[in-house]
Amino acid sequence: GKEQKRVSPTPALDSERDGVYSPDGKTIAFAGETNGQFDIYTVPATGGAATKVTSEAGDERWPSFEPDGHLVYAHRAPNRATSK
């Protein structure tokens, strides 16, 4: 659609992306960034507070729902600086 609507009043996030609806259309999962790292959040499709689903080190991105409603996502380990 042409009109965007904010569904989550989560001001602490630097950015939000990769949003996807659950099979029943009641939940949206998305990747939220804070301090350069992404975690997965869910929020009711009608709006409301977001719930942080992941908190692993590194990035969790590209959430998706299986037909039965289970949430899956990609995880990337944190970048580790190497010294020479």
Q: Which whole number gives the mean pLDDT?
A: 86
Broad structural category = mainly beta
Q: Can you count the helices? A: 0
Shape: globular
- Helicity range: under 10%
Distance from first to last alpha carbon: 51 Å
The string of secondary-structure elements, in order, is EEEEEE
Strand content range? over 45%
**How many beta-strand segments?**
6
Assembly status: single chain
Main sheet specs: 4 strands, antiparallel
User: Whole-number radius of gyration?
Assistant: 14 Å
Given as residue ranges, the uncertain stretches (5+ residues, pLDDT < 50) are: none
Q: Please list the strands of the largest sheet in the order they lie side by side.
A: 1-2-3-4
Quickly list its features.
single chain, 84 residues, 4-stranded antiparallel β-sheet, two-stranded antiparallel sheet, 6 strands, 0% helix, 45% strand
What is this structure, in a nutshell?
The chain is mostly beta strands and 84 residues long. It is built from no helices and six strands.
